[in-house]
Amino acid sequence: MLIWINGTFGVGKTHVAHELRRKLPGSTVSDPELPGFGIQRMYPPSLRTDFQDTPWWTPTVLGVLSDLTARHPGPVIVPMTLADPARFAEIVGGLRSAGVDTRHVALLASRRTIRRRVRSRFEDPDGWPMQRFDAVDSALRDDLFATHIETDHVPLIDVVETVAQAVGVDVAYSRVDRASLPIRRLRVTLGHIR
Fold first, then answer.
1. Number of domains, the chain
2. pTM, two decimal places
3. Which residues have C-beta within 8 Å of that of residue 26, sequence separation ≥ 6?
4. Using one digit for the tens of pLDDT, what is the confidence trace for 23-68?
5. What is the rounded distance in angstroms from the CA atom of residue 96 to the CA atom of residue 54?
6. Domain that holds residue 50
7. Which CATH number is 48's domain given?
């Protein structure tokens, strides 16, 4: 099974993915941003654009995820913004066509919430996530990207439980899980500062 967690930049995809990984035995997180940055850095600065716009990112991600789901026995969790309908069809549609049980959710939040979350990640509140917010948010609200999960004013644990329910897996949080969440969130945040 592959669980694709889509959403605007800064909505909390990575935090949700890592919480799901923790709660689903045998699961792994596979982040398509990593090969994207590698591809991007192979170009000189004057030719660098959004790595998703290179001719190499889409086939690379599709190939890696196809291979990973064939070889890894547990769920594969993918936190990645994917708002272009053609690219979505090529990657998510390609996985499904290849027989990969691919489940997709799109996390949504208001501009104000995203700005607050971006600040909490120690990033420029007027940087990349906010520059792309309107276009990405508008695209992801289309029915093509359903199931939609609104995350404004919703605690992370509740978002994780909603995502789990939407994709048909069971997760449950104990009192200890809830109490240790701030430490786990900080670790994920610090581990993903670019």
1. 1
2. 0.90
3. 73, 74, 75
4. 999 999 999 999 999 999 999 999 998 999 999 999 999 999 999 9
5. 23
6. 2-191
7. 3.40.50.300
